[in-house]
Each structure stands twice: as structure tokens, then as C-alpha cells.
Amino acid sequence: MKTFLITHSLKYFYTASSGIKNFPEFVTVGMVDGVPFSYYDSVIRKEIPKQDWMAKNEGPEYWERNTQKSIGSEQTFKANIGIAKERFNQTGGVHVVQKMYGCEWDDETQKVTGYRQHGYDGEDWLIWSTESNTWIAPKQQAVLTTNKWNNDRGWLESNKNYLNQICPEWVKKYVDYGRSSLMRTVRPSVSLLQKSSSSPISCFATGFYPNRAEMFWRKDGEEIHDGVEKGEIVPNNDGTFQMSVHIDLSSVPTGDWNKYECVFQLSGDKEDVTHRLEKTRILTNESNISIVIIPVVAAVAVLGLIAVIGFIVYKKKNGELVNFFVFLYFDC
């Protein structure tokens, strides 16, 4: 059984956009352990709780203070879009400026990891280096900004202090507020899926919590890696998570498929969820699969009464920068 590191996280996402119809020009979301707990946008113009445990534990002063902070950030971020467009010699069209900052705290080792970065139109724009306490410009157009910010040593030290000292204290507070919810364990529903007889077989787990999980394929009791591709853990609209792991068995006789099994492991759960690969258990397109898997897309949409907010998250994969959208769903 895999041993999971018990880390807690606090992240804030700021998103300003231009040229997107029927969508707020500015949105902020606060998340603890991947769960949204606060929200603001330029339409409602106030910070509101997204969890009952936040509404119960923080009073009017807290929400008014954060409302004023978000209103100030809204003006700044709208101006930042104009600045970025000038730097890239752009005029109209859809443009998005984003900021993500926060920290992770290991409640066993007490180790704290802070991060702060900005993006523009889906690419890294400004990245804070934890080692040097300086800003890095992935794009030439951002060098002017990094030169200015890196010359303000007092501001840099203030940011470092917030991420390394203040942020983890808020993590502890919010986790304590929502302990009964954030520390719960929910096992997933696991299915075996295949688009066609020649496609890879996907082991799909959904509805689990927390997002500290692992899933892999085994053959004859041994974990295998050849022909296996792991997907990312992404959120469902009910606060749970989903993930998948794919295996290519096109060169393996179907008579040997029963040697393979999909294994799901969840932090806080001592028992593995195991599904042996049997052809009769595989759902295909002909089976009218009704499971909805969140796709990787490059757009933001408003669907009926549900606002779908996409935040670009950057990850290193095979040495290349990959960006994808994580979706947060809020009842309007």
C-alpha cells in the first residue's frame, strides 16, 4: 500500500479577461485542499463563502475586508490586460490575465512550499523563484516588470514572509474549520472503458475524496509501466475528484487479459480498490457510456445556470510545459 504524504494547500486564483461575452471580467477563487471556499466576481462585487463551514466561522468583517481587497485587485488586473496587450502589440480579441499564489504545508514535517505566478493568454508570464526570492520572466515582454519588481527588496521580503509564514497559518485555520469535510474519505466508482476494440483500455475512477490518490495497472501482481499512460486528477462539480489510467493491450491476446488488474489507492483508506480486467466488464461506445469525463479544452463557457470557470494550470511533462484547464463549478 502506498504511503501518502499528508499535505494541505491554500491557493488563490485571480482571472481577468476581455472579449468574453456574458462572463465576468474579473473572478477570484480561494481553494483549500482543492476545495473552493471563497468567491468574488465583477458582477456580484462581493466576496462570498462557498462552504458552510466558512460562513459559520468567519463573520461580516472578514467578508467585507476580502471584498475590498478583491475590488482593488479587479482594477489592477483590468489595467494589467491593457499593459500586456501593449507589450505584445495587440488590440482586440479575447485575452486573459491570471495569477495563482499560495502554499502547501506538510502537517508531519512542517515543511512549507510557497508559490506565486502569473499567466497571460495561456502561457507563463511571471514566476516567483522560491530559492532566490526573485521574479523570473519566461517572456521577453515581461522583463520590464521583473526588473521593476526585483528592485523592490522590501516588497519581495514581504511576499516571502506571507508565503512561508502567514499562508501556512491560514491553511491550518481553514483546515480546522472544514475538518469534518476536508478530512473525510470517499471511495470511488471504478469502471473499465474502451472506445473501440483497437483503442487503449481506460480504468476510470470518479467520485473519490480527497485528491491524494494513485491508480495503476498490475500484471500477475506486479505494477507495470510499459504501454501505460496516467491521466491527471481533476475535480468533479460536486467537490469530489476523478482520474484515469490507460493501458495499450493491442499486442496482448485477449486470453491473457485476465492477468491484468487496475488498482486504485486512496489516502486514508487502508484497502485498495481492485478491478481485474475481464472483457465482459469493459464498457464501450456500443454500451452507451453515460459517464462524463472533464475534457482538456481551451475555452471558458457559461452553461445555463452553472458558471464554469477555467483556470490554466501549468505542469512539466516529458520536459515540456503543458497547460490545461481545471474547472470549478458554482451555482449562480
Helix-strand makeup class: alpha+beta
Number of domains: 2
CATH structural fold name of the largest domain: Murine Class I Major Histocompatibility Complex, H2-DB, Chain A, domain 1
- CATH level-4 homologous superfamily of the largest domain: MHC class I-like antigen recognition-like
Overall average residue pLDDT: 85
Protein name: Ig-like domain-containing protein
Family: Belongs to the MHC class I family.
Organism: Poecilia latipinna
Domain Ig-like: 188-274
Q: What would you say this structure looks like, in words?
A:
This protein folds into two domains: 7-181, Murine Class I Major Histocompatibility Complex, H2-DB, Chain A, domain 1, CATH 3.30.500; 185-294, Immunoglobulin-like, CATH 2.60.40.10. By secondary structure, the protein is of the alpha+beta class. The protein has helices spanning 52-57, 60-87, 143-150, 153-177, 179-182, and strands at residues 7-18, 26-32, 35-41, 48-49, 95-106, 112-120, 123-129, 134-136, 189-194, 201-208, 213-219, 222-223, 228-230, 234-235, 241-247, 260-266, 273-276, 282-284, 302-303, 306-317, 320-331. It is built from five helices and 21 strands. The strands form four sheets. An eight-stranded antiparallel beta sheet has the order 4-3-2-1-5-6-7-8. Strands 9, 10, 13, 14, 15 and 18 form a six-stranded mixed beta sheet that branches. It has a four-stranded antiparallel beta sheet with strand order 12-11-16-17, with no helix packed on it. Helices cover 21% and strands 40% of the residues. Keywords: Glycoprotein. Belongs to the MHC class I family. InterPro entries: Ig-like_dom, Ig-like_dom_sf, Ig-like_fold, Ig_C1-set, MHC_class-I_related, MHC_I-like_Ag-recog, MHC_I-like_Ag-recog_sf, MHC_I/II-like_Ag-recog.
